[in-house]
Amino acid sequence: MSSVATIKRKVIPPHLEVKGGHQLSGVLKVSGAKNSSLVLMAAALLTKETLLIKNVPKLTDIEVLSEILLNLGAKLTKRNNSIEINSRCIHNAELPYQLVHSLRASFFCIGPLLARLGEAKIPLPGGCNIGARPVDEHINGLKALGAEVVINNEVVSAQVSTKNKRLHGANITLKYPSVGATETILMASCLAMGKTTISNAAREPEIQDLAKMLNSMGAKVSGAGTQRITIKGVKTLRGTSHSVIPDRIEAGTFLIASAITRSPLIVGPLVPNHLSAVILKLQECGCSISHHGNHYLKIIPREISGVDITTSPFPGFPTDLQAPFMSLMATAKGSSKIKEKVFEKRMQHVNELIKMGACISLEQNTAHIKGVKELIGSNVKGGDLRSSAAIILACISAKGNSIFTGLDHLDRGYEKLEEKLSNAGSIISRKFDQKTSQISFSNKKFTEDNIDTQKNAA
Ligand code: EPZ
C-alpha cells in the first residue's frame, strides 16, 4: 500500500494580520456616525427637493442603503464623505429583498415611503445577528398613525387608504424606548395631519440628529433627546444641507483602544456628552480623561482595574460598546461583571476572547471576567459588527500575532479601521485571498514524491 499525503490549498478570506503588543500614540480620528447617516439618508425620501448630507462614513451599510434608494428611483451623487440625494422621482414603494436582507436600517424607509406615497412594501429586515430584533413597535406606531399593515411571507405591506393618502397624528407610547421605532414614527409623522406625541421615546444622539435635520427641512419636531417627542405635521418638507454627528461608538472604541494598549491618545472629533457613561466607566477603571479643545478628548490610561457595567438605552452604557469594553476588562486587574440588557445574543466575542487567553465565564447574558496579565495572539473571527471591533482591540494589545477574519462585519460599521490604527502605531494590515498550504497525511511513511497537490481544494 502506498503512502499518500495531500496538500490542500486553503483559501483564507480577506483578513487582518495583526502583530500585537505595540503602543499607540497621536490622534485617532473619528468619522461621521453610521447609525445617524443611515436614518438621515432614508429621511431623504420625505422630500422632492435635494438633501446634502455631509460627514457620511464610507461603509458597506451606506453602500447597501444607497443601492436601495437608487432602486426606489432616487438620484444619488457622492463626493468624498458627502451624499446628495434627490427623491423627486421615486417610482417604487417596494424594497428589493436581497438588499434589505443584509441591512436592518433598510426598514427605516417604511416611514418616509408611507408618509410620501401612502404605501410601502418592505421585507422584514436583516442585519447583525444579535437577537430576534422584532419590528412590532415600528408597526404599532404606523398603525396608530392610520396605516393598514399586513405581514405576509415575511414582507410588510403598509398603506394609507384615505383619499388624500395622508397619515394622521396620534399619541403613541412605546413599550420600550426603541431607537428604530422612535425614528420610524418620527419620520412618518412629520408629514401627517395634526399632532403626534411619542412617549417613552428613545433619547439617543442619533434621534436628536434626525430631528435637527428634519427641522431644517421644515418639520416641526420638539423634545428630541427627551422621553417625549412632539411632532406637528406639515404638508411638505424641503431640501437642506446637514452634517452628521461624530460616531460616538467609533469614538468609544478608540478610547478603549487607548486603555487596552495602555497608550495615551487624543480622540475626536466627538461630542463628550454623547459618551458620558463610557467616560465615567473608563475613569472608574483607571483612565484620566480631559478635554483637548472643544471636540477632542485626551485619554491617559494608568493601571486598569475591573469595573462592572450593565448596558441600557441612552444615556446609559451603550450596548454597542459592551463587547469592546469586555476586551478591556479581560486584561484588567481583578474581576468584573458585564450584563447585556438590550439585545439577547450579543456575546459572540466571548469565545474568541477565551481563545486568546481571557478568563470569562458566561451565564446567559452576564459575563464574569477575571483579568489576565496579557492576551495571546490567535486566529480569531468576528461574528457581528461590534464583536469584531472588540476582537481587533484584543489583537492589537495581545502578545504575538493574530489573524482576524470576519471583515464583512467590520466593514459595515468602521471606516478604515486598520488604517487609522496603523497610523497611530498598531502593526495591522489587510490581506486578500491568501492561500495557505495545509498538508494532511493518510500514512505516516510518506515520501516527497507522492505528494498530490489539489490546487482547487477549498
Ligand atoms: C439601533 O438598533 C442601532 N442600529 C443599533 O446599532 C444599536 O445597537 C441599537 O439601536 C441600540 O442602541 C441602527 O441605528 C441602524 P432598538 P435598533 O430598536 O433600532 C427591542 C450597531 O452595531 N425592540 O433600540 O434595532 C429589540 O429587540 C447596531 O451599530 C422590540 O422589541 O435598536 C431590542 O431588544 C446594532 N420591538 C431593543 O428593543 C421593536 O419593534 C432595542 O432595539 C424594536 C425593538
Describe the SSE topology.
Layout: E1 5-12, E2 15-19, E3 27-29, H1 34-43, E4 50-54, H2 60-72, E5 75-79, E6 82-86, H3 97-101, H4 110-117, E7 119-123, H5 136-144, E8 148-152, E9 155-159, E10 171-173, H6 179-190, E11 195-199, H7 205-216, E12 220-222, E13 228-232, E14 240-243, H8 248-260, E15 265-268, H9 276-285, E16 287-291, E17 297-301, E18 309-310, H10 322-330, E19 335-339, H11 349-355, E20 359-363, E21 366-370, E22 379-381, H12 385-397, E23 401-405, H13 407-413, H14 417-423, E24 427-431, E25 434-441, E26 451-454
Parallel strand pairs: 1-26, 3-15, 4-14, 10-11, 18-19, 22-23
Antiparallel strand pairs: 1-25, 2-23, 2-24, 4-6, 5-6, 7-9, 8-9, 11-13, 12-13, 15-17, 16-17, 19-21, 20-21
The structure holds ligand EPZ.
Ligand EPZ binds next to helix 1, helix 5, helix 6 and helix 12.
Give a brief outline of the structure:
This protein is α+β, with helices and mostly antiparallel strands and 458 residues long.
Which terms would index this structure?
27% strand; binds ligand EPZ; disordered C terminus; 14 helices; UDP-n-acetylglucosamine1-carboxyvinyl-transferase, Chain; 2 domains; 26 strands; alpha+beta; four-stranded mixed β-sheet; disordered N terminus; 458 residues
